[in-house]
Amino acid sequence: MTIFKTAKELTAYLVEKKNAGVPIGFVPTMGALHEGHLSLIHQSKGQNTLTVCSIFVNPTQFNNQEDFKHYPISIEKDIEQLIKAGCDILFLPTEKEIYPQNYQSRHYNLGSLEHVLEGYYRPGHFQGVCQVVDILLSIVNPDNIYIGQKDYQQCMVITRLVDLLGKRDQIHIHIAPTVRESDGLAMSSRNRRLSGSQRTKALTIFKELISIKASLHTTPLEQLKKEAHRHLEDAGFSVDYVEIANAETLEPASGTGEHLVALIAASLDNVRLIDNLSLN
Ligand code: AMP
After folding, report:
1. Is 151 in the pocket of ligand 1 (CB under 6 A)?
2. Contact between 269 and 258 (Cβ < 8 Å)
């Protein structure tokens, strides 16, 4: 695996490959890698000649400075895992490399995506995601990008971003299923911050998603949301939302005739976890 630290060198290398017709797959991450990230690398490797992974903890997408300060970092172990997974290139930029002094931020029109769920509870978060993904796409210029359904709304935002950039025909977006621990907890870098007892409680999120799915046709949606909310609070969570939403718009569902997704965001102390489940 070759490690690039500057955008200029990476772009120069990739332009040559691209001109030679080499298909390039891209997996952007913030590091602290786990099997969820590696599943994206494996998918990219199966569909491209060259797989590029980036690790960059993007400050502009953190609306909470404490969360940014405590975001787990394990570069040495990440590198080992990427080599083992057969990743070809790791882009490991500094903050200055991504946001040089003359960087001019723009506003991305994300429509209602910016105001619901994660958009509402993490103001500015998706603008930050768009900033970094826009920059990374211009550096890597991949044929394929691999992202995880674990971050359901982020997948919608990145799809919208690729549209806004007019790159829908050049960049194919692949959304990969959520990889879970054996008991069902969605893998997340933030899980590393959970204590033993918090780790046990964390499973409540997945249990509630499963329970919503099981009772979808027998219990009113409002009641399902309320019950899940209460169970999470009983387990010690501070709950941002339990939503049953239209899977295409993320607007609250009015009935079960639409394609639905259940989404939960809740914190144990300062560790904020999100998960979601397609319902039908
Ligand atoms: P992050 O490092 O958290 O920014 O995640 C980088 C990419 O990995 C994003 O596209 C995430 O959606 C994806 N990802 C994170 N956790 C998982 C998971 N458990 N299963 C599949 N993909 C994931």
Report:
1. yes
2. no
A 10 A CB-CB count for 187 gives: 18
Tokens 């939503």 belong to: 243
Q: 276 CB less than 6 Å from ligand 1? A: no
pLDDT, tens digit, 9 for 90 and up, residues 62-72: 999 999 999 99
Catalytic residue among 34, 37, 172, 174: 37
How far is Cα 192 from Cα 181, in angstroms, rounded to an integer? 13
CA-based nearest residue to 108, from 77, 85, 81, 135: 135
120/261 Cα distance (integer angstroms)? 18
Which ligand 1 atom minimizes the distance to the CA of 186?
Answer: 19
Rg (CA), the chain: 19
Q: Is the pTM value of this prediction over 0.90?
A: yes
